[in-house]
């Protein structure tokens, strides 16, 4: 991947943004697609087979956009006696296959698992980010660094509050993400400008990989997810330094982060089996549809593994 530039048109190099720069950035954002048409309509079409709940709202009409209902989909006949599995998408709203992979899983595979598990899917945690194709929310806060107490992002805070109120044991959580070329052309330079720093990581892996939780690495689980995905698309190879996105590879196709320490969504539940998916839709060897199918395959692979290893 060609190294990009840290130069960004807002702010001064080496100086973190203040309120003025953040407001300039927000005023440049525009709606590019519809959360209500692309996501809400699909969720509502699932209401015969699943329970649909609104767990919160993002009051962003004040910014000239919409007030976004936050929706999740749950299996019917929920029981605290059954283990619970969670799938989240759209924590970074711009990552398209995360949102549509979660929806496609609901449309095609989820019902098969509802006898053994409580299934909960939050397909689009950041609808403003989905509509404006952004990593941040309107406050220039990254929801996937905000799963903390107290949370600086309402996107994270509201799903955290809902999950905290669930009864029973959560055994698995898979968070669906993408790495795209716009990470280098827009989001990494924007982050460097916002924080007044220099970015030195421009690596974008060509293929699918996983980010596990270093506190619960669950190597065999990660391998089962990758084995399922490999039937759909290619797994990313490490770079010449044995790394993916600058992080040492823990096993083929897997790097590990401390989920809770860094406020990542994969720290949401405390489940034993946790992973974050990353696909590369800009690859010459993959299509957007393959990326959606890879997300579904990841969830299915994880569920099949957990089903076979329940105590």
Describe the structure in brief.
The protein has about 300 residues and is an alpha/beta fold. It has helices at about 20-25, 35-45, 95-110, 125-130, 155-165, 180-195, 220-230, 290-310, and strands at about 50-60, 65-75, 85-90, 120, 170-180, 210-215, 245, 245-250, 255, 275-280.
Task: List strands and helices in order, with pairings.
Blueprint: H1 19-27, H2 35-45, E1 50-59, E2 67-75, E3 84-89, H3 96-108, E4 118-122, H4 127-132, H5 154-164, E5 170-178, H6 182-195, E6 209-213, H7 219-229, E7 243-244, E8 247-248, E9 254-257, E10 273-279, H8 288-308
CATH class: Alpha Beta
Strand content: 15-25%
Judging from the principal axes of the Cα atoms, what is the shape? globular
Q: What does the average pLDDT come to?
A: 96
Provide the helix percentage.
Answer: 25-40%
CATH architecture: 3-Layer(aba) Sandwich
Relevant terms:
globular, Aminopeptidase, alpha/beta, 8 helices, eight-stranded mixed sheet, 311 residues, 10 strands
Describe the structure.
With 311 residues, the chain is an alpha/beta fold. The protein has one domain (19-308): Zn peptidases (Aminopeptidase, 3-Layer(aba) Sandwich), CATH 3.40.630. The protein has eight helices and ten strands. Strand 3, helix 3 and strand 4 form a beta-alpha-beta unit. Helix 3 (96-108) packs across helix 8 and helix 7 (219-229) crosses helix 8. The protein is globular. The active site is at 278 (proton donor/acceptor). Its cofactor is Zn(2+). Residues 31-310 form the Peptidase M14 domain.
């Amino acid at each position: 991947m060609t190294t990009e530039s840290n130069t960004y048109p807002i702010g001064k190099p080496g100086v973190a943004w203040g309120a003025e720069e953040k407001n300039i950035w927000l005023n440049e954002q525009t709606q590019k697609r519809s959360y209500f048409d692309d996501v809400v309509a699909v969720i509502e079409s699932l209401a015969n087979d699943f329970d649909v709940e609104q767990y919160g709202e993002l009051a962003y009409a004040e910014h000239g956009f919409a007030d976004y209902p936050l929706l999740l989909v749950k299996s019917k006949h929920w029981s605290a006696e059954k283990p619970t599995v969670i799938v989240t998408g759209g924590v970074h709203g711009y990552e398209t296959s995360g949102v549509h992979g979660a929806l496609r899983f609901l449309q095609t595979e989820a019902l098969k698992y509802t006898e053994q598990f409580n299934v909960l899917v939050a397909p689009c945690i950041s609808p403003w980010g989905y509509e404006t194709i952004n990593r941040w929310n309107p406050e220039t806060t990254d929801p996937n660094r905000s799963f903390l107490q107290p949370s600086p992002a309402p996107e994270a805070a509201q799903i955290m509050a809902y999950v905290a109120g669930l009864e029973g044991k959560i055994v698995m959580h898979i968070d669906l993400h993408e790495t795209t070329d716009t990470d280098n052309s827009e989001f990494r330079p924007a982050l460097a400008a916002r924080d007044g720093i220099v970015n030195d990581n421009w690596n974008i892996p060509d293929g699918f990989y996983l980010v596990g939780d270093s506190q619960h690495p669950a190597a065999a689980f990660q391998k089962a997810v990758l084995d399922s995905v490999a039937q759909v698309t290619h797994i990313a190879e490490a770079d010449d330094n044995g790394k993916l996105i600058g992080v040492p590879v823990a096993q083929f196709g897997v790097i590990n982060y401390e989920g809770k320490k860094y406020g990542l969504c994969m720290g949401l539940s405390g489940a034993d089996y946790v992973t974050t998916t990353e696909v590369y839709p800009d690859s010459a060897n993959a299509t957007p549809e393959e990326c959606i199918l890879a997300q579904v395959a990841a969830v299915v692979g994880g569920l099949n593994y957990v089903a076979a290893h329940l105590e």
